[in-house]
Design goal:
This protein is an alpha/beta fold and 172 residues long. It is built from five helices and eleven strands, in the order βαβαβαββαββαββββ. The protein folds into two domains: 1-96, Alpha-Beta Complex (Spore Coat Polysaccharide Biosynthesis Protein SpsA, Chain A), CATH 3.90.550; 100-172, no CATH class. Helix 1 links the parallel strand 1 (6-13) and strand 2.
Length: 172
Amino acid sequence: MSARLCVLVAALTYQRPADLRELLPKLLAQADSVDAECSVLIVDNDPDGGARDFVSKFVDSGVQYVHVRQPGIAAARNSALQLAQDFDLLVFIDDDERPVEGWLRLLLQTYRDHHSAAVVGPVVSEFAVVPEPCRTILQTASASNWHAGRPRRDKQSALGYATDSGPRSVLR
């Protein structure tokens, strides 16, 4: 794993132009800050392709755009998976999430250190209106793919995760 990694950072968006305007410059800064060949892909799941005009302003920065008309996050993620075939790694983030400083560096370092099949990290969600506490807990548990406070262990592959205190790896 000493070769320079080729990484695709895929941001999924759906009718949230203000969130995308805030997220995209942060992703470009993260991509520029790591020792890897990083590309940023915006996957637009809006049937009208509402993010196209905004993203086109970043073509000179190497940002790629794909419009996925089929509704649903699964279709959007599957499109990113197809486009990532020539990359070593695929990193997902949604338009309503914000990468903290060092987010991508920690994910890549965890991958390099532990040769994990997957790497996950904490997510910072921002809400216009504070959600009900039970919804926040359910969304956090669902997003992190943790079950009853423990990672799934149905496969014998390494699962790495990065935290503010450093990378972690566990069996999945």
